[in-house]
Amino acid sequence: MFAPNSRYANLPLRTVTDRRGRPVAIVPVPPAPDQVLRGLHQRRQGQRLDHLAQQYLKDATAFWRICELNDAMTPDAIAEVAEIAIPR
């Protein structure tokens, strides 16, 4: 269901019941990873987090690690931030 490098890959599925009484499979929110700060990146106009993740972490799908370190739920939450914390 999830890519092997996804933070959700090894989490157990749970079932909840929606308002209509139907069972729905969910994945719990994973715990935040322990990350060390590599440094701060001065963001330029048009830079996307997946590009920064590829540059610094060698994995474009690891943009969520940058979000976690910057205490942002989504990439849009830090779209206008001038300095972005980058994990090691």
Please, could you describe this protein's structure?
The chain is elongated and about 50 Å long. Helices cover 18% and strands 22% of the residues. Helix 1 (49-57) packs across helix 2 (63-69). The strands form 2 sheets. Strands 1-2 form a two-stranded antiparallel ribbon. It has a two-stranded antiparallel sheet with strand order 3-4. The model has no long low-confidence stretch (mean pLDDT 91). The protein has a domain at 33-87. The protein is of the alpha+beta class and 88 residues long. It has helices at 49-57, 63-69, and strands at residues 14-17, 23-26, 37-42, 83-87.
What's a concise summary of this model?
Helix content is 18%, strand content 22%.
Along the chain, the helix and strand elements come as: EEEHHE
Instruction: Kindly name the structural category.
Output: alpha+beta
Low-confidence stretches: none
How far apart, in Å, are the first and last alpha carbons?
27 Å
Strand arrangement in the largest pleated sheet:
1-2
Sketch the major β-sheet.
Answer: 2 strands, antiparallel
C-alpha Rg, in Å? 16 Å
Beta-strand percent range: 15-25%
How would you sum up the global shape? elongated
Give a quick set of tags describing it.
88 residues, alpha+beta, two-stranded antiparallel sheet, 2 helices, 4 strands, 22% strand
